[in-house]
């Protein structure tokens, strides 16, 4: 499968800060460019952290209100998380404000891998690195969602070419493929159950696929011979090992 790479959807003009960038300058960058966070880099453009609006707001949150009684001693203030928040509240530079290490992806990672990283770490944007781990771009949730704007005809063409023809070596017309609003429907009869499973699994990994409707049947259940049976074709061989 030729899944779309992060490098093809990322933004290359990256707003960044350095370790010593002052607090007010960081706030100015976020406001001017209307972003909620930005990477912090060293002299070699390696990402050393990320600073966000939330990091800056800790300074405001720690400012006591007028006539507010002095805070009482609490054990919770001794936790690592509390100490980090307190340090950020006193920070004057991006290096002291930032969250480190930064969660990032590489330009050659797939869009799917980037999406999983975002969801896992609950972030809205990721710095993109090259093969030398230097900053080359930024990718946001909005960028990743662009893959779902692929035309249905383009998705159908890729499923036929990459899944049915290259993956399973099937002749044209043996499986009917229809795509409506990103939902792919596979209908037809295959020789083996393993081929059916591969067809559905590979289709689910097609960029722009919203869902797969499986209406495939099979003539022979080869589940018991999974370790010894291989579908012809290099791509399919690899997929059988994963199932």
Automatic annotation (TrEMBL):
<dbReference type="InterPro" id="IPR007055">
    <property type="entry name" value="BON_dom"/>
</dbReference>
<dbReference type="Pfam" id="PF00571">
    <property type="entry name" value="CBS"/>
</dbReference>
<dbReference type="InterPro" id="IPR017080">
    <property type="entry name" value="UCP036990_CBS_BON"/>
</dbReference>
<dbReference type="InterPro" id="IPR051462">
    <property type="entry name" value="CBS_domain-containing"/>
</dbReference>
<dbReference type="InterPro" id="IPR000644">
    <property type="entry name" value="CBS_dom"/>
</dbReference>
<feature type="domain" description="CBS">
    <location>
        <begin position="98"/>
        <end position="154"/>
    </location>
</feature>
<keyword id="KW-0677">Repeat</keyword>
<dbReference type="Pfam" id="PF04972">
    <property type="entry name" value="BON"/>
</dbReference>
<feature type="domain" description="CBS">
    <location>
        <begin position="10"/>
        <end position="68"/>
    </location>
</feature>
<keyword id="KW-0129">CBS domain</keyword>
<dbReference type="InterPro" id="IPR046342">
    <property type="entry name" value="CBS_dom_sf"/>
</dbReference>
<feature type="domain" description="BON">
    <location>
        <begin position="152"/>
        <end position="220"/>
    </location>
</feature>
<protein>
    <submittedName>
        <fullName>CBS domain-containing protein</fullName>
    </submittedName>
</protein>
């Amino acid at each position: 499968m030729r899944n779309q790479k992060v490098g093809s959807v990322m933004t290359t003009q990256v707003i960044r800060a350095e370790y010593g960038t002052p607090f007010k300058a960081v706030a100015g960058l976020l406001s001017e460019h209307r972003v909620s966070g930005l990477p912090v880099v060293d002299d070699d453009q390696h990402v050393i952290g990320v600073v966000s609006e939330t990091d800056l707001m800790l300074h405001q949150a720690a400012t006591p209100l007028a006539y507010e009684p002095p805070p009482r001693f609490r054990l919770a203030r001794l936790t690592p998380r509390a100490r980090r928040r307190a340090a950020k509240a006193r920070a004057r530079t991006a290096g002291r404000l930032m969250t480190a290490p930064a969660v990032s992806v590489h330009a050659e990672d797939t869009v799917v891998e980037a999406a999983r990283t975002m969801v896992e770490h609950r972030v809205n944007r990721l710095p993109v690195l090259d093969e030398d781990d230097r900053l080359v771009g930024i990718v946001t949730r909005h960028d990743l969602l662009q893959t779902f704007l692929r035309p249905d005809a383009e998705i159908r063409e890729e499923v036929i070419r990459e899944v049915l023809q290259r993956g399973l070596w099937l002749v044209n017309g043996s499986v009917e493929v229809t795509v409506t609003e990103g939902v792919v429907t596979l209908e037809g009869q295959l020789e083996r159950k393993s081929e059916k499973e591969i067809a559905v699994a590979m289709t689910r990994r097609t960029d722009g696929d919203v869902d797969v409707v499986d209406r495939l049947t099979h003539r022979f259940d080869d589940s018991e011979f999974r370790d010894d049976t291989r579908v012809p074709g290099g791509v399919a061989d690899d997929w059988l090992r994963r199932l």
